[in-house]
Amino acid sequence: MPAKTLRSIFIAATSLACLVAAASAFAADPLPSWNDGASKKAIMTFVAKTTERNSPDFVAPDNRIATFDNDGTLWAEQPMYSQLLFALDRVKVLAPKHPEWKDKEPFASLLKGDVKGALAGGEPAIGAIVMTTHAGMTTDEFDKIVTDWIATARHPVTKRPYTEMVYQPMLELLSYLRANGFKTFIVSGGGIDFMRPWAAKTYGIPPDQVVGSSGKLKLDVVDGKPVLVKLPEVNFIDDKAGKPIGIQQHIGQRPTAAFGNSDGDQQMLEWTTAGSGARFALIVHHDDAKREWAYDRTSHIGMLDKAWDEAVAKGWTVVSMKDDWRAIYPQERK
Amino acid sequence: MPAKTLRSIFIAATSLACLVAAASAFAADPLPSWNDGASKKAIMTFVAKTTERNSPDFVAPDNRIATFDNDGTLWAEQPMYSQLLFALDRVKVLAPKHPEWKDKEPFASLLKGDVKGALAGGEPAIGAIVMTTHAGMTTDEFDKIVTDWIATARHPVTKRPYTEMVYQPMLELLSYLRANGFKTFIVSGGGIDFMRPWAAKTYGIPPDQVVGSSGKLKLDVVDGKPVLVKLPEVNFIDDKAGKPIGIQQHIGQRPTAAFGNSDGDQQMLEWTTAGSGARFALIVHHDDAKREWAYDRTSHIGMLDKAWDEAVAKGWTVVSMKDDWRAIYPQERK
Q1: pLDDT at B69 over 50
Q2: Does the pLDDT value for residue B26 go beyond 90?
Q3: Predicted model pTM
Q4: What's the pLDDT at A334?
Q5: How far, in whole angstroms, is CA B333 from its chain's centroid?
Q6: How much is the ipTM here?
Q7: CA separation (Å) from A162 to A199, A227, B6?
Q8: Which of A78, B80, B261, B288 could form a disulfide with B321 if both were Cys (CB 3.0 to 4.6 A apart)?
Q9: Is B2 in CB contact (< 8 Å) with chain A?
């Protein structure tokens, strides 16, 4: 085929694709799983005023940064953080190589099926479980472990894959923001290496746009090839005051909009809204015991107390899962 | 204007823009400042084979990651790293507030104009200068200091702005890779907060795609507003073995292609090429004493010794600035 013909075909095809894209920009409701109400209106008003060129609140595309907490904001965090359930599964897999765990807490309780007893040891117990299951292998090995687990593990209550325990309205919100030129990031207290293997497929967020807690790494050489070994030592905790720090270190810009669900997100929302120009802060309130879980001020997981008071005082958007969301999970999409 | 008419106009305009974009994909040489030769050919062959859909070396767009060292790879690093020259300028600005510096090294020598004497103190002296000039203010304040400096400071030899001391062939390479779906990152030993304020404008690389060395941060509240304070404490050194670690922590994927110029980049190039599938490693060799500087095995700045030997042994692309580059700086563009 002559180059000129090829070129004409290529141009025609590209133009057609663009035409379709342009037409779909005028398509129906971008947030179909959100009920009409104050929350949906606040989101759409914010996007319109920051993206319309003649708006006094216009934000240049390069500065449109949106950060999302993960646990409880993008996916379910009850009855326990998924990463902790992953760690518990790993303890069972690793147990045959650790006969000493039979008499050593928190592992002994865990292997007897007594999760509550294992976690009674508090932070040190959780730390021991996390370090044992998240260190001592290369980054490539850990990536494969997580990829295999997420493909096969099931949520203890719903028996569905964890990647189906994500919130359909938030998936729509991520797409809607990206379609309007926002760069979307995860900023989570969860492990950065635990989220990256599935975040792109699940949320459309590439590995370099995932910010999270991390352990230290060491460059080593095995069989003449460089490897990165995960050390049992904390590098960074991306929670509470750590979130603005993680944002600065990874993203290097203050977000235009931030989305969370608990007191762990309070500093991220404060940091975001303290910037000049139009800013947006949103909190997902878990108030739907029927379709999901209902918890807030007194919950050990995802406690929403001080951040809720601040949201009310400052006029941040507080989403009621019960009233604002038509569907919770993708499979309920109407 | 009826919505339907508006829609038609919008679609027509978008299609036209797309048509122009499609046509320009067939435009002239994307690397006009590169002489025809082995280096240019190696780059273009790599890009073709990783981006043509039916190629056995095809790399999915999501995995096209290209990392670039900064000093000596994207901009000049002689007669001294620009960030050190920035720090020396800052010492002069801050001196009136520090009368004690008159008798305290390395500041005393520095204020007498004796840069060599100041740096005779080695790493501790450089550390003292960097910490004094890069900490003790908020991230917003430091951003402004760097933005003001880069807009006004002049290179000591050429008297040109530092942002004009960038390499035209590398600017073309960055654009060429991006046009072919690669996400471009800086991975530099330089300070992350020093590079971010001007990297977007100069290189087209946004703040979140800049990886570098950093100090620790602290979230504080001043006048009821959160601020991030730069502490005089090292957080991370993104050099040598630190580069693969910085890549993993920030990018979370092994690069497809990596570009450097010194032994400080060796581990990044090794890490990149140790991945499966097609990988590309390139070293810029400073061998043009007439148009730039000539230095390699014995230079204190940008020493290229072990990485050069490895490049030759492994067949990495070694660019001769003298022979491969038609122009060095943007203003010499033919």
Answers
A1: yes
A2: no
A3: 0.92
A4: 60
A5: 20
A6: 0.91
A7: 12, 29, 43
A8: B288
A9: no
